Amino acid sequence: MAAVPLRPCRASGRLLPLLRGGARSRGASPWAAGPGRVAQRRYKKDVLPEPGGAAPAVSVTEIRRYLRAQGIPFQDGYSCLHAPSLFGPELPTAAGPPFTLFIDKTTGSFLCTATLAEGGWQDLQAAVELRHRGVPAPGPEEGEHEEEEAAEARRAREDARRIWERALPLGELLDEEETQTTKAAFGIAPLADSTLKRFGVRYLRAAKALVFPWFAPRDAALRGLKLLVAERQGDAVSYTEETFPRFDAYRNLFGLPLIGRRDTEVVLTGRELDALALHQATGVPCLALPRGATILPPALLPYLEQFRRVTLWLGDDLRSWEAAKLFARKLNPKRCSLVQPGDLQPQPLEALNRGLNLTKILRAALPAGHKAIVSFRQLREEVFGELANSEQVAGVKWARFPELNKLLKGHRRGELTVFTGPTGSGKTTFISEYALDLCTQGVCTLWGSFEINNIRLAKIMLTQFATRRLEDQLELYDEWADRFEDLPLYFMTFHGQQNIKTVLDTMQHAVYMYDITHVVVDNLQFMMGHEQLSADRLAAQDFIIGAFRKFATDNTCHITLVIHPRKEDDEKELQTASIFGSAKASQEADNVLILQDRKLTTGPGKRYLQVSKNRFDGDVGVFPLEFSKASLTFSSYGKSKAKLKKVKEEKVPSPKKGPNGGVGSSGKP
C-alpha cells in the first residue's frame, strides 16, 4: 500500500465541533476552537537577528577554554559538550554531579535536560557569573519569556489535554470490527494493539484521527500532541497532520519516554507510524522527528547524545534522502548511517505492509561519512538511485508555474540561480511568488530582502498566498495569517548595504538552525557598498558571486540571486550579457532567468519569463506571464503550452521580433 507524504494543514471543517464551547488557543488550530471566538491578530514569522543585536559567534574552542577557566568540568559529545547543570539543586552521585547540561558545539546554545532551562551562549555566561556570586541561576520558569507566549503555551496544553481525554486506545473501541476498519483506513493493519498501546497512541472518534502524545521527558506530563487524519486516494493513503502547540513550538521526539539509559542505538524516522512499524518489526529503539524530513531542530540534539549509532530512515523519496544527509552533519556523520530510498527499501510502514525484512534493510544502511577519495563501487548505488528516480532528481516542481517545470524540470539543491529584469518590471513580486510556491511544498526558505523591508515583503507574500486582497476582507486575515505562519519561511533583518561576510555567517546559522534549503538574495547591488576588498567594483562583485556559489555547493542549498541589469536601450530585450558586471555571474550560475517586460516599451504588451541558461539538461526558452494586480500574482496564459513549444522549435531567433513571435533559446554565456 503506497503512502502519500504528510501534509501539514490548518483546520478541517469537520473537526470544528471537536471542542465546541472551549477556548481557542490563539495561533492554534481551529480544531480546538470554540464558537464565536476570534483570535487576536499577531505576526510572528521567525526573523534572524540584526548584526547589531545578534549574539557574537562562538567556536567550540572558545567554549572549551571558557569552561576550563571557570572550573566547570565537561565531556566531549557528538554534537554537544556535556557539563553539570547550573540550574536548580544538584543531585550528586558517587561519580559526581550528573552531566545534564548540553552545550551546542556550533552555536553555544544550551539545554538542561533536568530542568528544561535553555538559552544562548550569553545566557549561559550570565548563569555562570550568578553562580560564582552565590546566586542560583534562574530556572525555566524565571526566564524572560513573554507573558503572551507563556499564556499561549498554556492554552495549547489545555486544548491538548481536552483532546487527549476524549481519545481512546484503539483496543478500547466498541468492537473488533471498528478497530480493524480504523486500522485499514490508516494503512496500519499489521500494527498490533500492544505496539500502539506501548507508544500511547489513541484514536479520536469524533475527528477520525489518530492521536500521538508528547510527554515531557522529565516528569511525563502531557506537553502537546499530534493529530493525524487519513484520506484514501485509490490504493494510496494521504495523511494530514495538526499539532498542539503549533508546528514551530512542537518539539516532540515521539517515542523518547521508551528509551532506556543504556540504549546506544536508535533509528530516526520521518513519521510516527514508521517508528511504530520499525519498532514492532525489529525491536530497535525508534524515534520520530516532529516535522519529518523538513527540519531537525538543534534543541533536540541533546536527547540524541547518548547514542553511539544513529540510523536515519526518513522516507522513500530523494528529498528525504537529501534531508538525511543534511541531518547527519548535525548529528556527527561518524556515528550516522542512512537508509537509501529504493523500491526494496520503502518507508518502514510500507515495508511492513509488503512483508519485507526490515532488519535486513537496517543492516544495509550506508555510512554517512565519506572519505576524500571514493571509487565508483562506493557510488554505484547512488548513481542507480538517480537513474531510477529521474523525476525526483529533477527537483521540486512548481505548482504555480508548470511551464517553468518544462524548462528547468524542477528546483534542485546546491544550485545557483541568477534572476534579472528591467527596473519596475516586478522582479521582487515575481521572485516572492516563485519562492512562496516552493515554500508551500515544504522547501525551507530564507529571504534576504535588502531593497524593501520585511513588513512590505511579508504583505506581498501573504497576499500572494491568499490570492486575494485582504485589505478588503480583514475578517479573513487571522485565518490566512495562521496558515502563512506555519510555512517554513524565515527572514533576514538586513536592509540596505551589508557586508558579505555578515550575510554569509547569517545564512550559515540559518542552515544549521532551520535546515534552510533555499536562500533568496534580493539583490546583489545593495550588498556591494560595504565591500573594501578591491577598488574595482567588478572584482568585488565577482568575489561575492564566487562566495555564494561556494556556499550553495558546500551546504547543498539553492541560492536565488537577484541582480539588476546594466543600463541598456529600453527598446532592446535583455540578454544574458545584460546582467550587470562581468561574465562571472552567468558562468557560475546553474540557471539564468530573465523577466522580459515588453509592456514598458510597446504599450499594452506582455511580460515573459526567459530561461536563458539551464545547466541541468540544457532546455531554454520563454513563456508568457500575466499579472493579477488584485492578488499580486503571475500566471501563465491558457495557450502557454503551444507558445512554449514554438519557442523551443525556433533555432535562430531574431531579437527584433514582436511579442507574438517569441524569443528562442539564447546562446551559451
UniProtKB/TrEMBL annotation:
Might you name a Gene Ontology BP term for this protein? mitochondrial DNA replication
Query: What single Pfam family name could you report for this chain, choosing any that match?
Result: AAA_25
Q: Where is the composition biased (Gly residues)?
A: 659-669
Membrane protein topology class: Peripheral membrane protein
Occurrences of domain SF4 helicase (ranges)? 390-641
Tell where it localizes: Mitochondrion inner membrane; Mitochondrion matrix, Mitochondrion nucleoid
Which enzyme class?
A: isomerase
Q: Which InterPro entries match?
A: DNA_helicase_DnaB-like_C, P-loop_NTPase, TOPRIM_DnaG/twinkle, Twinkle-like
Q: Which domain of life is it from?
A: Eukaryota
EC numbers for this chain: 5.6.2.3
Region Disordered: start and end of each range? 134-156, 638-669
> What GO molecular function terms would the record report?
5'-3' DNA helicase activity; ATP binding; hydrolase activity; lipid binding; single-stranded DNA binding
Q: Which Gene3D superfamilies match?
A: 3.40.1360.10, P-loop containing nucleotide triphosphate hydrolases
Q: Name one GO cellular component term.
A: mitochondrial nucleoid
State where composition is biased (Acidic residues): 141-150
The UniProt keywords, alphabetically, are: ATP-binding, DNA replication, Helicase, Hydrolase, Isomerase, Lipid-binding, Membrane, Mitochondrion, Mitochondrion inner membrane, Mitochondrion nucleoid, Nucleotide-binding, Transit peptide
Show the catalytic activity.
ATP + H2O = ADP + phosphate + H(+)
Its annotated function is as follows:
Mitochondrial helicase involved in mtDNA replication and repair. Might have a role in mtDNA repair. Has DNA strand separation activity needed to form a processive replication fork for leading strand synthesis which is catalyzed by the formation of a replisome complex with POLG and mtSDB. Preferentially unwinds DNA substrates with pre-existing 5'-and 3'- single-stranded tails but is also active on a 5'- flap substrate. Can dissociate the invading strand of immobile or mobile D-loop DNA structures irrespective of the single strand polarity of the third strand.
Kindly provide the name given to this protein in its UniProt entry: Twinkle mtDNA helicase
Name the source organism: Phasianus colchicus
Top-level taxonomy: Eukaryota, Metazoa, Chordata, Craniata, Vertebrata
Recorded name of the encoding gene? TWNK
